[in-house]
Amino acid sequence: MNTIADFDDETLCCIAKTYENDTRFKDYFNSYDNQNLASYISEAVNYFLSNENKKDNF
Question: Which residues form the TipAS antibiotic-recognition domain (predicted)?
């Protein structure tokens, strides 16, 4: 059975930050010939969710 969790933006940002801070995730993502991929993913998720929140407030 497939279950999809409904996470709030804060939780998603924390998960994305884990990609950057946890060496297991960081090493995995950075193995794709880009030593900054984990940081890029984390920053992109945080940027997107921050802008989505601003858009919802208008």
Answer: 6-48
